[in-house]
Every structure is written in C-alpha cells, then in structure tokens.
Amino acid sequence: MPGTIAIVEDEANIVELIKYNLDREGYRTISASNGRKGLELVRKELPDLVILDLMLPELDGLSVCKQLRSEPQTKSIPIIILTAKSEEADRVLGLEMGADDYVTKPFSPRELVARVRAVLRRSGSMEEEEQEIIENGVIRMDLRQHLVKVRGEEVELTPKEFDFLKLLLLNPGRAFTREFLLEHLWGYEYFGDTRTVDVHVRRLRQKIEKDPATPEYLETVRGVGYRFRGE
C-alpha cells in the first residue's frame, strides 16, 4: 500500500512537481519549506519516507538528516536526499549520515518515483521474512525486531545498511559485484555510479569490524566487489 511521503524542499516548483507525481501513484504527500519546519513535520507525522533537499534555509539538510537518525522515533524512516550535481561531497556526507539514497537535480520525476518505490519496498520487506534470526561469527541479526548485535553489543544501522548486511550474512563467501548490489538493494540502475555501495561498505565496516582498516568480515574482492567472510 502507498504510504506518506514528507517533502522537505524550499523551491515551490520542485515541491509541486514531486507532489504531482507521487499523488498520481497514490501516495499521501506532506511538505515543509525549510529544515526546521521539516524536522518538526517528520517528528509529528512519522511518514514512511522523507525526500530531503540539502540546501535548505534555517537548518540545512545534512543537519536534518543527522538529527532524524539520532532520534529513536525517526531513526528508521528512509531518507532520499536531493542534491545538485556540484554537491558531490555533501551527497557522500549525506550517505555517511544515514541517508538511504540520493537524486541529483535536475531529475526525472519517473526516476524519483522509481527510487521512492524501491526504497519503500526494501524497508518494508522484513515483514515477509520467514527466517527471524541470522547469526554468523560475531554478528547476530533479529529480523523481526530489526536488531543487530556485534560481539554482544547492539549497533544501530540505517534501513539500507540493515538490508545490505542481511544480504551478505545470508550469502557468506559469495562475492557480489557493485552493480548487482545496486540493482538488488536499490532496485534500479545507477548508470555506473557505484560510489553509493562503497560508502555503505565503509559505514558498515565502522560498525561491525574491530579495525575497519583491516576488515575481518566485510572483504573487498579486487576487480569484483565485496563478500562476507563467514564462519
């Protein structure tokens, strides 16, 4: 079932474009024109997904993203950030802070809708899982509670990080190409832009490895992609 999408964007024409296309797909849309109001809106409405511009008045999008990820009631809400082509550093920083995806302006409305659909599909897929617990080495995932423990300590993962780690744990020893990971986890073609995968791998290593610089579990397979070294 389509859900509620919060649009935090200060350009009225972009808001109307996004609302029009999402409304046609059956989504309920709500919006705010600056970062502070957007933060209040998400806290109040708890939407199914947030579309967040980075260049916002009063409170920038990176700060909004960081704040949403730090609060228990909003930390699991998927976030798609909107960036200009010149904002690559901010885009990467947004992914580092927990955003699930990004769209570069100017964007195709069809592409944005496809990405919204893909992110919502992945974030809601846990309900369909028959297996409730995945354990491999020092990592234990509880799919029903959306809980991950590493060496007995709980770690907080974004929805996309959770799906990423789940795929690796279910397939220990298998090498995945970046292109496959993009297609499987994001649900659409990135046209060769594989940096998103590398950002998520770096974040996962920081959370599950004793020494992220010399990973024991999430290995790089040179010329291919990544694999999980299972026990």
Notable traits:
5-stranded parallel sheet, alpha/beta, Rossmann fold, 231 residues, Arc Repressor Mutant, subunit A
Draw up the topology in text.
Layout: E1 4-8, H1 12-24, E2 28-32, H2 35-45, E3 49-53, H3 61-70, E4 79-84, H4 88-96, E5 101-105, H5 109-123, E6 133-136, E7 139-142, E8 147-150, E9 153-155, H6 159-170, E10 176-177, H7 178-186, H8 195-208, E11 218-221, E12 225-228
Helix pairs in contact: 1-5, 2-3, 6-8
What would you say about this model in short?
This protein has 231 residues and is an alpha/beta fold. Residues 125-130 have low confidence and may be disordered. It contains 8 helices and 12 strands.
* Helix-strand makeup class: alpha/beta
Largest sheet: 5 strands, parallel
Work out the number of β strands: 12
Major beta sheet, strand line-up: 2-1-3-4-5
The H-level CATH homologous superfamily of the largest domain, spelled out, is Response regulator
Whole-number tally of structural domains: 2
Rg over CA atoms: 17 Å
Mean pLDDT: 87
Query: In the CATH classification, which architecture of the largest domain applies?
Result: 3-Layer(aba) Sandwich
